[in-house]
């Protein structure tokens, strides 16, 4: 919608028009203040861990183990493509594979994700109901933002 | 030609002084919106609806997300 709105404003003669392409969802997910009756709702993006172990497709399990060891306090590694788009997740059980095993072959493909603007209380309730310890947070494009852990 | 901006660029423009327009439907704006923004739903974006906007200031439009 906003690109069309920007185009129309230029047609109306406005000289300096900008399109904030990521939109309200990104602003909300960044934990920035808003106005309105829903303004006080906490969002997942503001509570997610942003520094998480990551490796790319084509990396080995040995690399993933190292990323986890370097990060301290994690038991999983997120697998992305070269553009940071989430491809899968490696949990502890997959890390027992031989060093040279490709992460592509042992990862859990297409993990469940939520957007940064998702209501935090609702996510916590869902995770508790399903006994889920962590959830990946991604932009609408699928690019990794971070991981929300229920212990956070 | 419209310039696409990211969050840091938006914040810089806000500091400089900008008219911020949310083009989503009114109900979505009313529920929650960026501080200081006004609401002109896209379907209501006409020359008359923007008549009072200061043209000496930059204008930023936004909707829900990039999709």
Major beta sheet, strand line-up of chain B? 3-2-4
What general outline of chain A do the C-alpha atoms trace? globular
The number of helices of chain B is 2
The number of strands of chain B is 4
Q: What is the string of helix and strand elements of chain A? A: HEHHEHEEHEEHEE
Helix fraction of chain B by DSSP (H/I, runs of at least 4): 10-25%
- Amino- and carboxy-terminal Cα gap of chain B: 20 Å
| Biggest beta sheet summary of chain B | 3 strands, parallel
In words, what does this structure look like?
The complex is a heterodimer of chains A (152) and B (67). Chain A is built from six helices and eight strands; from the N terminus they run αβααβαββαββαββ. Chain A has 152 residues and is an alpha/beta fold. In chain A, helix 6 links the parallel strand 6 (113-114) and strand 7. Chain A starts with a helix and ends with a strand. The model of chain A has no long low-confidence stretch (mean pLDDT 92). Chain B has 67 residues and is of the alpha/beta class. Chain B contains two helices and four strands, in the order E-H-E-H-E-E. A three-stranded parallel beta sheet of chain B has the order 3-2-4, with no helix packed on it. The interface between A and B is large, with 39 and 41 residues.
